[in-house]
Amino acid sequence: MKLEDIIKGINVVEILGNKNPEISDIHIDSRKVETGHLFVAVKGTQTDGHAYIDKAIEKGASAIVCETLPTSINPDVTYIKVNDSEDCVGKLATTFYGDPTSKLELIGVTGTNGKTTIATLLYNMFRKFGYKVGLISTVCNYIDDEAIPTEHTTPDPITLNKLLGRMADEGCKYAFMEVSSHSVAQKRIGGLKFAGGIFTNLTRDHLDYHQTVDNYLKAKKAFFDNLPKTAFALTNLDDKNGMVMVQNTKAKVCSYSLRNICDFKGKVLEDGFEGMLLDINNVEVNVQFIGRFNASNLLAVYGTACLLGKKPEDVLLALSILQPVSGRFDALRSPRGYSAIVDYAHTPDALVNVLNTIQEVLNGKGNVITVVGAGGNRDKGKRPIMAQEAVKQSDKVIITSDNPRFEEPQDIINDMLAGLTKEDMRKVISIVDRKEAIKTACMLAQAGDAILVAGKGHENYQDIKGTKYHFDDKEVIREIFANE
């Protein structure tokens, strides 16, 4: 594509050189640049792309988009100066990859918890309806049935548009996408046209990046502020920020709730480790999911499908046969008669939700043993809170490792223990080795008890000192069960 066609959607301050070179690809990583490529120099959180302009030119870049022109100008290269190169990347990528979101209906899901479950269930539901569908999620990206591994909840703008372009080219009618707060703040979704947005909830998370809960809220809210009037904004009225999120949106606002008057109303009629009986808009439906938080997720799925034109009765039928997402309240039954639940809960609120659900299902007839840790090089402020919430709702707590990254596991455990009183400590032990911690929980469990293994869910690795070692909570539990 000609450079002048690629840059037509951005505000250009100045151009030096030929406006018409043929561009064969776009990159923000100079290591990926080849002859004939466009390199966009972005001031990132870790490095400044402007420091790599010369490297990109050495590798063959025909054009550079930057905020500051280099002191040495190469006469064979075109330089496009802009005010905000980070803001330009998504727009450039959208244009280069043929404006993919004009060819399919893209739905974004944002919030602290529930994004993966809602996006994945919508993907599975609409495939059951017979459509080709795309999914962009924390666990894996899909172009219909083709799995594409993922590294971030929301990819960078170039990877994202390339992926959406492939979805459109391969006939996907819908795409469901997790929208992280980082992706909004870093303008990774710039240039995309959303047909709808879903808000799940907002609790403490990612404060290592956003610094304050208010900044975190504003990042989420910006997604809804930028939705077009042709889109819908579906919000959770059970969250205190539900209406705050959509107060400035131009989109059509709809709501879902388990407690309040709304467009898509739900109620849990029966609950067990095998599933729930729900009332959704005055119709009863059995589902294979557990807990009020999943009832809320299913309401978001139901509302979205209805807003996309599906008949309520068809949506309810699909809900009844959908299965839980891997690592989200995955319940396994021990031969000795206790249950083990693997869940991705890695925030205080998510942990509370899962433990509340377990307590509701047990109804005082069994003990709860919780295995929990906290990730390294992330929000340290939530560590003592995670330990406190685990202790409040459990009969025994084992604090252990959870992706220590570049921190010492014992230091993270000590940060968690610092939030506990002497009284709390009577029911707490710490075991650094996660496998040993899970084994110990299983040894302590009696028939009728429930073990929660929290924090990693679908992840099949432990991130230690920059290396990802294979580790899967469910595999460990199944191995223990096989030897009972």
What does this structure look like?
- This protein is an alpha/beta fold and 484 residues long.
- It folds into 3 domains: 3-96, 3-Layer(aba) Sandwich (Udp-n-acetylmuramoylalanyl-d-glutamate--2,6- Diaminopimelate Ligase, Chain: A, domain 1), CATH 3.40.1390; 100-321, 3-Layer(aba) Sandwich (UDP-N-acetylmuramoyl-L-alanine:D-glutamate ligase); 330-482, Alpha-Beta Complex (Protein-Tyrosine Phosphatase, Chain A).
- It is 33% helix and 22% strand.
- The chain has 17 helices and 24 strands.
- An 11-stranded mixed beta sheet has the order 9-8-7-10-6-11-12-13-14-15-16, with helices on both faces.
- Strand 14 (264-272) and strand 15 form a beta hairpin.
- Helix 10 runs antiparallel to helix 11 (312-321), helix 13 (382-393) packs across helix 14 (409-417) and helix 16 (434-444) crosses helix 17 (473-482).
CATH class of the largest domain: Alpha Beta
Classified in CATH, the superfamily of the largest domain is Mur-like, catalytic domain
Give the % helix. Answer: 25-40%
Structural class: alpha/beta
Low-pLDDT ranges: 205-210
Number of helices: 17
Task: Give the domain tally.
Answer: 3
Q: Could you give a short account of the major beta sheet? A: 11 strands, mixed
Give the distance, in angstroms, between the N- and C-terminal Cα atoms.
63 Å
CATH topology of the largest domain: UDP-N-acetylmuramoyl-L-alanine:D-glutamate ligase
Which descriptor suits the 3D outline? globular
Mean pLDDT: 93
CATH architecture grouping of the largest domain:
3-Layer(aba) Sandwich
Going across the biggest sheet, name each strand in turn. 9-8-7-10-6-11-12-13-14-15-16
Radius of gyration computed on alpha carbons: 24 Å
